[in-house]
């Protein structure tokens, strides 16, 4: 009877599952939750970034706008990933600070890539390629070059930059946030 009590006490003392936004998320595999988090974060970021480009393009370069919006999104993204993927950390600020370098390196990578894509006029190139593609398919496309040049926004470059920085952030976030037990198993 005492052995049964000791075993039940050990089971009760086991670490509880991480605190996610809702308990049902524990039934969803981590890689699916990570993908959902990435999708939501990217949608929110793209909306904020493209809105900011339209609002501030006359005051700052798109790479500066990108870096500023991304900097604002570091704690937002960290909160989302904590609630949806890894669980709310016991020490939030410490966890945020350990993840901040991931975001900061992504800012540098994203800002540099955004600046480069602006220099090569990536958005205009993609728009022209899409028009040519539709023409090759036999569709008549009305495009006025003046309209295309005056349109603002960084839609296509932001998608490309998000893809690159998303992969970068995924790899580093998994390395930083993976439980030590799973890292030890991988090393064996």
Percent helix range: over 70%
In DSSP terms (H or I, runs of 4 or more residues), the helix count works out at: 8
Shape: elongated
- Total strands: 0
Give the helices and strands as they follow along the chain.
HHHHHHHH
Characterization of this structure:
By secondary structure, the chain is mainly alpha-helical. The protein has helices at 2-13, 30-56, 62-86, 92-119, 122-136, 145-150, 155-177, 180-187. The longest helix has 28 residues, at 92-119. The radius of gyration is 22 Å and the shape is elongated. The two termini are 38 Å apart.
Please provide a brief summary of the model.
With 188 residues, the protein is mainly α. It has helices at 2-13, 30-56, 62-86, 92-119, 122-136, 145-150, 155-177, 180-187.
Write the layout of secondary structure elements.
Elements: H1 2-13, H2 30-56, H3 62-86, H4 92-119, H5 122-136, H6 145-150, H7 155-177, H8 180-187
Helix pairs in contact: 2-3, 2-7, 3-4, 4-7
What labels describe this entry?
188 residues
């Amino acid at each position: 009877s005492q052995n049964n009590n000791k075993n039940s006490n050990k089971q009760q003392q086991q670490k509880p599952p991480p605190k996610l936004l809702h308990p049902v998320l524990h039934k969803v595999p981590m890689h699916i939750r990570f993908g959902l988090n990435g999708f939501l974060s990217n949608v929110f970021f793209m909306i904020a970034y493209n809105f900011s480009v339209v609002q501030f393009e006359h005051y700052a370069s798109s790479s500066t706008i990108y870096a500023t919006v991304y900097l604002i999104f570091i704690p937002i993204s960290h909160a989302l990933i904590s609630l949806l993927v890894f669980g709310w950390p016991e020490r939030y600020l410490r966890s945020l600070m350990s993840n901040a370098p991931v975001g900061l390196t992504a800012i540098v990578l994203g800002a540099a890539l955004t600046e480069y894509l602006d220099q090569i006029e990536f958005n205009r190139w993609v728009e022209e390629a899409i028009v040519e593609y539709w023409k090759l398919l036999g569709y008549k496309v009305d495009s006025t070059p003046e309209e295309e040049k005056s349109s603002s926004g960084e839609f296509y470059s932001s998608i490309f930059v998000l893809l690159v920085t998303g992969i970068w952030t995924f790899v580093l976030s998994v390395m930083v946030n993976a439980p030590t037990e799973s890292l030890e198993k991988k090393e064996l």
